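User: I'm putting together a small comparison set for a docking exercise, and I want a reference complex before I start. The sequence is below, and the ligand is fe (ii) ion. Could you produce the 3D structure with the ligand included, as structure tokens?
Assistant: Of course. I'll restate your input first, then give the structure tokens for the complex.
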Amino acid sequence: MLKHKLFPQLKLLCNQIGRPTQRLSQKSLVRQVHSNGNKLIFRQMFHNETYTFTYLLGCPVTKEAVIIDPVNDTVDRDVKYSTEMDLNLLYGLNTHVHADHVTGTGKLKERLPNFQSVISKVSGAKADKFVEHGDTLKFGKQVIECRATPGHTAGCMTYVLPDHAMAFTGDTLLIRACGRTDFQQGNSEKLYDSVHNQIFTLPEHYQLYPGHDYMGFSVTTVAEEKILNPRLTLSKEKFVQFMKDLNLAYPKLIDISVPANLKCGEISRQAMLGSEEILNK
Ligand SMILES: N[C@@H](CCC(=O)N[C@@H](CSS)C(=O)NCC(=O)O)C(=O)O
Ligand SMILES: [Fe+2]
């Protein structure tokens, strides 16, 4: 009751949803969802099995949208969600050739007729559109700038939205950590330079969204990581040694993911069943 006094609009919405005869149409619900003055529709989604973040970004004016690092297992969720939000997905951007999961861009291409996959040219992977350092991509009134950030893999790309002070760092920079450098032309010196020259040079208030998080975090800032990242605050020499000593086990799905992702997520039924078996172990 009190809630309804404080929020008359909430009462109206509850009433409309509650009475079947007066239910909001999909279109008017979407209009209400988007009528908050935000200039960007932004959702962060998670894949529990591989701790992967997928990001949905939409232009509230034109409804054009992009998805960053979709996972093949969650394509149904992502299509349903974008459709409910009335978004027209134009691009699926991969930050790199993933080693731990199969990208969803191949499956999304099958589901959405105008959808195009995007990856860096240097990655050597198959895609509809290749980007290089300095390129820009547009969806509606929104602009994405591409910054090459090699080191975790040779073809890693960080996607920056200057109008919203956000950057999507893939596995180059993780929250209080960074991507490993022991496969896929990984190189610790290059990763250190990429972070210091392409990410830490962004204004300090920029929010950084990583490709994974294994500790329960979701977002960080340039200011935070410049001071608190235990790896990237080391000298370059000490960082290289630290990465040499990491000794992580290889990702469980590496032998399935890398070949599939080099082909935009094309995966045989047999490999798909194999990956389910590995994840369920
Ligand atoms: N155990 C996971 C793989 C974990 C892993 O290696 N993560 C990568 C990012 S995915 S390529 C990484 O760079 N980690 C850095 C770190 O310090 O954790 C699995 O089997 O999939
Ligand atoms: Fe990775």
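Residues 96, 98-99, 152, 171, 179 surround fe (ii) ion (ligand 2) (CB under 6 Å). Confidence is low (pLDDT under 50) at residues 1-24, 31-38.
User: Thanks, that's exactly what I needed.
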